[in-house]
Every structure is written in C-alpha cells, then in structure tokens.
Write a structure and sequence with these properties.
Elements (H helix, E strand, L loop, with lengths): L2 E5 L4 H12 L5 E4 L10 H4 L9 E4 L2 E4 L1 H11 L11 H13 L4 H19 L5 H22 L14 H11 L13 H13 L3 H5 L1 H13 L1
Parallel strand pairs: 1-2
Antiparallel strand pairs: 1-3, 3-4
Helix pairs in contact: 1-3, 1-7, 5-6
Pfam family, one: GST_N
GO molecular function, one term: glutathione transferase activity
Family: Belongs to the GST superfamily. Theta family.
C-alpha cells in the first residue's frame, strides 16, 4: 500500500498529518509542494487538488483533501492506537466537536494573524497593517481563552481526553503558527504553556523535526517583537 503526503512545513494541517504518520510509524512518501514558489497554483497540481492547497494524500491512487477528513481516514485505515480517534461514541464526538469548532476560531484567527503579520508584508513588500493585526490578535486570544476554559477544562487534552488525539495535533500546530509573526502563544497563560509542552514531549523527536523551519522563523520574529 502506497501513501503519499503533499505538504509544506509552513502549513499547520500539513504538519498535523506528518506528526500523525510519524508518531504511528505509518510509512509514507513526503512530497513538498513549494507554496513560496507557487507550485500549488500550477495546473499539474490542480489535478491532485482542485482547491490547490495542502495537505493532500494519495493512497493507492485514492486522492483525499481536507486535513480533518484525512486524519479520520488514516485513523480508520491504518492500525493505530484507539486514543487517536476513539471508536467510543462520546469520546469521538468530543473530538469531532473540536475539529468543527476550530475552523472559525483558533485556525481562523491564528492563520490570519500569521498572514497579516508575516506572509503579506514579505510577499508584497509592505508594512504590517497594525489595525488588522490587532483585530486578529483579539480573536486569537478569545479562542485561546475558550481552549483554556472549555476544551481543556475536564482533562489534560482537548475535549477532556486522558490521552492525546488527532484534535490535539490540529490544536498545537495552529498554536505554533502566530509565533512566526511575533506572537508567542506558548506563553499566553499557564494552562496553554503546560498543554503545549505536554503534547510536544509526547511527540518527540518528531515534533521538533517537523517544526524546525517554523521555530527558526519564530526565533527571529520573537527577537524583534
């Protein structure tokens, strides 16, 4: 069985998929789509993903887009521990609830903070729009408060889980993203700090390997902040 991952190191959901596969020793071929050079906009890539984004998987010729769908598919298809995406209905529902929530909350505001504070200024050679950045910062902090007070209220992992799940992979990779624009989520509050450190340690050495490029950019950005 051949599994191919189309990814880029600056893509949060792509990093979540890489973490899942490496943590579970799932063999795969990694194909880096160079977003900086615009490879995702080329016609040949449109045949892989008509939305022209990453990540995508090709599994024995079966193409699948959307990170949440991919994580569910990989959890069902490969032999992985049940805690990643539990079969028990209530536990699975909590994970599904987070994955539905995150799109318009943590992912939305964290991504836009990153785009506004890092991508757009470098791509178009223009100063940061501080008004927009402030707006996205407020939304990001609201999402972090909700993660602290709701999603992590009943246990060490998302949704009150006692073990790590695919929801945690999506959460931590999103939390890493604003750091490249100078906002260190890891120090937002004690609970977030503990949570990110716990997930990072569980996923070592893969976590630091997969985030190496992000962390280099973060280090430079945080020195300037």
């Amino acid at each position: 069985m051949s599994l191919k991952l189309y990814v880029h190191p600056l893509s949060q959901p792509a990093r979540a998929l890489l973490l899942f596969c490496r943590a579970n020793s799932i063999p795969f071929q990694e194909h880096v789509v160079d977003l900086i050079k615009g490879e995702h906009k080329r016609e040949e890539y449109k045949k892989v993903n008509p939305f022209q984004k990453v990540p995508v998987i090709s599994h024995d010729g079966f193409l699948l887009t959307e990170s949440v769908a991919i994580l569910r598919y990989l959890s069902r298809t490969f032999s992985v521990p049940d805690h990643w995406y539990p079969k028990e209905s209530e536990l699975q529902a909590r994970i599904d609830a987070y994955m539905a929530w995150q799109h318009l909350n943590l992912r939305s505001y964290g991504s836009m903070y990153f785009q506004t504070g890092y991508v757009i200024p470098r791509t178009f050679k223009q100063p940061v729009n501080e008004q927009k950045l402030s707006k996205f910062e407020k939304g990001l902090e609201t999402a972090l408060d909700e993660i602290t007070d709701i999603w992590l209220k009943d246990g060490p992992f998302i949704g009150g889980g006692k073990q790590i799940s695919v929801a945690d992979l999506l959460a931590v990779t999103e939390m890493e993203q604003p750091g490249m624009a100078g906002y260190d989520v890891k120090t937002y509050n004690k609970r977030i700090t503990e949570y990110m450190n716990t997930v990072r340690e569980i996923l070592q050495p893969h976590y630091d390997q997969i985030h190496s490029e992000c962390h280099k950019i973060q280090e430079k950005a945080l020195k300037k902040a």
